[in-house]
Amino acid sequence: MAWSLVASLLLLSACASVSPSSGTLTAGQPATPFEQQQLVQARAQAAQGHLAEAATHWEVLSVLRPNEPSYARQLAQVRAQIEREASTELAAARAARQRGAIDEASQHDLAVLALQPDNEAAADALRAIEREHNKREHLGRYARVTLGSRSNKDSLQTGGQAATALSAQRNDLEHAALLAGQGEFDDAISLLNQRLKARPQDAAAKEQLADIYFAQAEALAPRDKEGAIAALRKCLQLQPRYAAARSRLAQLTAKP
Q: Which tens digit of pLDDT belongs to each residue from 102-147?
């Protein structure tokens, strides 16, 4: 918590320590509407299983009234519960990855981040899963394009223009993939955008462009958070159901 916020809360605590009516404050009795609101929110979030949010409210209450034992006790209990549940989810994620159940592992890692948004182990695991997913998607997509081209070779021999169009399509997609694989995301994006200007309904190009925006966001995230957010939003404009992009965007835009 920032020192300015701590100082403000300490000031509020000093102001709240004396009741305007009696000059004293009963133990466990909220002194101000703000404190009452924090207490209600802390209990409600805990009851709903939103432990990270509950912990934040108990932290505020503990700073407001450091001598109130119930606040410190509740904060310690919530933190301990967060640690237990995060450890359980991390262990389940590791076990799922060892079994090859990648989707299940992702769900456990996301559960960890819901409890501890700054958990590096879960975040790194999700990034690794997405990188591997993207790699397999690219390889699978280009294999399908190549096989489709070979299966249609005989029928295209008499249609020179159709064969040329299919070759150009394959070359555009493969070239963009090679550029992205070398980290030249802007060039790959430019190539696919040019293609989409000529063929706005090209589903394969849209799908690949969304993947490249996601890969670009992953590369940018450690050094350029705003650039990564912009790339994820472009990805979701192309593929609104891109679950990994939605999850990553939520992580990057979450309030500290």
A: 888 888 888 888 888 888 888 888 888 777 766 665 555 544 454 4
Place of tokens 């932290």: 59
Residue from 24, 110, 38, 102 nearest 71 by CA? 38
Are 73 and 83 contacting, i.e. CB atoms less than 8 angstroms apart?
A: no
Quick one: 187 exposed, middle or buried, by C-beta within 10 A (0-12, 13-18, 19+)? middle
The residue whose two tokens read 């509950």 is: 54
| DSSP structure class, residue 18 | S
Cα separation, 207 vs 87, whole angstroms: 36
Concatenated DSSP letters for 200-250?
A: TT-HHHHHHHHHHHHHHHHHHTTT-HHHHHHHHHHHHHH-TT-HHHHHHHH
Distances 253 to 6, 226, 229, 232, 246 between C-alpha atoms, Å: 23, 9, 8, 11, 11
Asked which of 10-14, 130-134, 202-206, 242-246 is least confident by mean pLDDT, the reply is 10-14
Tokens of 158: 């008499």
Cβ–Cβ < 8 Å for 176, 188: yes
Rounded CA separation 106/153 (Å): 41
Cα separation, 188 vs 170, in Å, equals 14
Backbone angles phi, psi at 215, to 5 degrees: -60, -40
